[in-house]
Every structure is written in C-alpha cells, then in structure tokens.
Write a structure and sequence with these properties.
Layout: E1 5-11, H1 15-28, E2 34-40, H2 47-54, E3 59-62, H3 69-79, E4 84-88
Parallel strand pairs: 1-2, 1-4, 2-3
Helix pairs in contact: 1-2
Length: about 100
C-alpha cells in the first residue's frame, strides 16, 4: 500500500513565494502520493486570492486571526490525512538534485 505525504505550509503575506513553492512541489513530487495543505495566518496581501486563482485542488485553510506559526502548523497537521508530515515554509523551492 502506498504511503501518503502531507505537506503543511503556513503562510503569512508570502503570496508570490508561496505560488513558486507549490509549483515546485507539483513539479518534483509528481510521482509521490501527497496532499498540500496551506494554512493562511490571516494574510493582508494577495495570498488568499493567488491561492484561489492558481490552485483549485489543494486544501486551503484561511484563519481569521494570525495564530502564530506553531498553532497554524498544528492546525494543518490535524486536517491532514497522510502517513508522513512535511512542514515547509512558503519560501522553500524544491530543485532537481542531479
């Protein structure tokens, strides 16, 4: 049985970086069963709109207040369904290691 990876990204006002991060995940993890959960910590930039426009099939959690990094990660973990958890910052970019 395949194992599933849950990727939790806590975002606060990192809209453009977040989009690049998610696109890199999609590019380099295409052969790994995974889910992406973005927990937005009440961003005041265009992060939420960018997520809605660019990614229909990822789980988006929009918090009403900035709860802090640890709380937001734990909230995302509780919503996850994977066998493994990967916590990423929105400025992370996956690259080809070869």
């Amino acid at each position: 049985m395949l194992k599933k990876l849950s990727i939790i990204i806590v975002n606060y006002n990192s809209g453009e970086e977040l989009i690049i991060c998610i696109k890199s995940i999609r590019r380099y993890l295409s052969n790994i069963l995974h889910e992406i959960i973005v927990v937005d910590n009440n961003s005041t930039d265009n992060s939420r709109e960018l997520l809605r426009i660019n990614f229909k099939n990822i789980q988006k959690i929009f918090l009403k207040t900035n709860t802090g990094y640890a709380f937001a990660n734990n909230y995302g973990i509780k919503q996850s369904t994977g066998d493994y958890i990967l916590l990423l910052n929105p400025d992370t970019i996956l690259i080809d290691s070869s």
